[in-house]
């Protein structure tokens, strides 16, 4: 079975981790499959992406058997080269950050556990919907290492510094309700995949150009000053107002129907 499957329907790409017998633990084959899935989705007509995990869990983290292969190696030579993301990331960081860089929104549907690499993968999504009994953890400290798959870029955007430190220092799992209070989880749903697909359907029916512009603006606002963000707001708006796509949105609103986009 492939480590990751990608299906496209109604402009929604569903990316599913498909290693249920190992709770979707991340090994090299999973990394390769996730990178391929990211490239496939980026080249597709998808307007929104849903990431989920098959079986009992979203992702239990790194496959510990894979760590044994690093013993005795020059780890700086393995980890430090910037091989992906236009010279920004290595392959481990890229499996999370590629979703944040994707033009369209990404929703992660979490259940079971999202530990370590699994949590960092979920953090790359724009939105995270979790089942009530989901447990989440920044697990790396348990194995004597630190988060190194984009978590240190993504976590500070979501949680306070003291919460980040608690999560990293203790490696303690937390319940979905606590994760929601702290900002790791967007919302809780009894069936997170169904909720994610319903939300994806709603997003897919919005103006594709406006949705992509909104994601660009939100991403920019998280690391730029007010002058740059305000100018970008105006630039994006000028490119949208009066276009055939926007006119279709307005016509559909007045006609009380779903807009139709090419």
Q: What value does the Rg take, in angstroms? A: 19 Å
* Main β-sheet, spatial strand arrangement: 1-2-3-4-6-9
Kindly name the structural category: alpha/beta
Question: In percent, how much strand structure appears in the residues?
Answer: 5-15%
N-to-C span: 35 Å
N-to-C order of helices and strands:
EEHEHHHEEHEEHHEHEHHHH
Number of helices: 12
Low-confidence stretches: none
* Helix percent band: 40-55%
CATH class of the largest domain: Alpha Beta
Report the major sheet: 6 strands, mixed
Q: Kindly give the count of domains.
A: 2
CATH topology of the largest domain: 2-enoyl-CoA Hydratase, Chain A, domain 1
- Average pLDDT figure: 95
Q: What would the principal axes of the Cα set say about the shape?
A: globular
Q: If classified by CATH, what would the architecture of the largest domain be?
A: Alpha-Beta Complex
CATH superfamily of the largest domain: 2-enoyl-CoA Hydratase, Chain A, domain 1
The total beta strand count reads: 9
Overview of this protein structure:
The protein is α/β, with parallel strands linked by helices and 262 residues long. The chain has 2 domains: 4-203, Alpha-Beta Complex (2-enoyl-CoA Hydratase, Chain A, domain 1), CATH 3.90.226.10; 207-255, Lyase 2-enoyl-coa Hydratase, Chain  A, domain 2. It is 45% helix and 14% strand. It has 12 helices and 9 strands. Strands 1-2-3-4-6-9 form a 6-stranded mixed sheet, with helices on both faces. It is globular. The protein starts with a strand and ends in a 7-residue tail after the last helix. The mean pLDDT is 95.
């Amino acid at each position: 079975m492939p480590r990751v499957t990608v299906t496209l329907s109604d402009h929604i790409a569903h990316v599913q981790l498909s290693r249920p017998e190992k709770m979707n633990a991340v090994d090299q084959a999973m990394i390769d499959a996730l990178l391929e899935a990211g490239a496939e989705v980026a080249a597709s007509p998808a307007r929104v992406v849903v990431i989920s995990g098959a079986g009992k869990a979203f992702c239990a983290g790194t496959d510990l058997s894979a760590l044994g292969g690093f013993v005795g190696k020059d780890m700086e030579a393995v980890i430090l080269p910037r091989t992906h993301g236009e010279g920004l990331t290595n392959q481990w960081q890229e499996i999370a950050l590629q979703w944040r860089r994707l033009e369209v929104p990404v929703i992660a549907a979490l259940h079971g556990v999202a530990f370590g690499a699994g949590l960092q993968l979920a953090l790359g999504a724009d939105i995270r919907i979790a089942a009530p009994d989901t447990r989440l953890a920044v697990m790396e400290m348990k194995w004597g290492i630190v988060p190194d798959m984009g978590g240190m870029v993504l976590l500070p955007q979501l949680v306070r510094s003291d919460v980040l430190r608690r999560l990293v220092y203790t490696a303690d799992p937390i319940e979905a309700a606590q994760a929601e209070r702290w900002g790791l989880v967007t919302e809780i749903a009894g069936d997170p995949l169904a909720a994610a697909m319903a939300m994806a359907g709603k997003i897919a029916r919005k103006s594709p150009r406006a949705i992509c512009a909104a994601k660009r603006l939100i991403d920019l606002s998280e690391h730029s000053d007010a002058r740059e963000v305000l100018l970008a707001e105006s630039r994006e708006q000028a490119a949208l107002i009066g276009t055939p796509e926007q006119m279709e949105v307005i016509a559909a609103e007045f006609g009380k129907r779903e807009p139709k986009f090419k």
